[in-house]
Amino acid sequence: MLSLQNIVKQFDNYKANDDISFEIPAASIFGLLGPNGAGKTTLIRIITGITAPDSGVLLLDGKPFRSENRSQIGYMPEERGLYKKMKVGEQLVYLAQLKGLSRVEATDRLKGWMQKFEIENWWNKKVEELSKGMQQKIQFIATIIHEPKLVILDEPFSGLDPINADLIVKEIFELKNAGATIIFSTHRMEQVEELCQRIVLINKGKNILEGNVTELRKQFKDNQYRIEFEGELAPSFASEFEIQDINQNTIQVRLQHHQTSNDLLKKLIDQGLSIVNFQEVLPSLHDIFVKRVKEFNLSKEVTI
Predict the structure, then answer these.
(1) How far is the C-alpha of 183 from the C-alpha of 103, rounded, in Å?
(2) Which among 8, 89, 121 has a CA at the least distance from the CA of 55?
(3) Domain coordinates of the chain in residue numbers?
């Protein structure tokens, strides 16, 4: 649905985006990740048409991005872009009209969304009267009311309590199922694992990691196993296997290259333990994020 090919954007002597390439499948939820200052915001501005790359190609549905494609995009920024003195209903109708809807169509759609979110009584409230979480829900409606093909969500759960966060998650999946493509940018890796099929990791302007979330977790696995057992673990076990964590009848072990999961299981059984659960531990996206960024930064220092 969206293809970025060798995108470069430079400000004076600083390259915010340095030869970045990746593709986002249609009707998918895609994670755009990176530490602060990695170049994500600049990339989002290029994707939304706010700024143009110095070089490279941006394709939408296989065709070069054009200014008229902006009406097919919904962008929810991390910092809210709402007019605080305007009333909620008036403002959302106005923003929908900027995206090409008639006033009648915008009003009709807005009423439907406000009923769905059970916020009909907010219509005549000023934005400044709402809590941070309430404003976030209004910003979300403003982002998707024109039914965009491409939705960009930058920290969409900021300020939301768990109930309203779950509500937005439900709507994100419904957007995907209806055919929308969603770019999700956040520092909360557990949310990425819950929502995204694929990710790209940007650091210092470069694409340093890309792929399917499940496959990446398998790729970065570190031969660690978590075992729940009944019985008493013999002291000699620690001399043969590297214990990462132990808590009563649960233990986490990392195997060396010459050791196999069968070796571990046999040792535990030979000690007379009853195995309740034996599970390979895959790294979290948080662990992968930190590991890959540190490796990249170290390689840059060595090169310099």
Answers:
(1) 28
(2) 8
(3) 2-217, 222-281
Q: Tell me: the pLDDT tens digits for 21-38?
A: 999 999 999 999 988 888
pLDDT one-digit tens code per residue, 193-232? 889 999 999 999 999 999 999 999 999 998 999 999 998 8
Cβ partners under 8 Å of residue 294, min gap 6: none
pLDDT band at 13 (very low <50, low <70, confident <90, very high): confident
- Helices (H) and strands (E) counted in the chain, each on its own, are 10, 14
Burial class (CB in 10 A: 0-12, 13-18, 19+), 53: buried
- In this chain, the answer to whether the domains covering 2-217 and 222-281 adopt an identical fold is no
Q: Which fold has domain 2-217?
A: Rossmann fold (3.40.50)
One-letter amino acid for residue 236 of the chain:
S
Q: Quick one: 47 exposed, middle or buried, by C-beta within 10 A (0-12, 13-18, 19+)?
A: buried
Q: Which CATH architecture has domain 222-281?
A: 2-Layer Sandwich (3.30)
DSSP one-letter code for 81: -
- Cα(293)–Cα(172) distance, integer angstroms: 28
Q: Is the dihedral of CA 80, 82, 87, 91 positive or negative?
A: negative
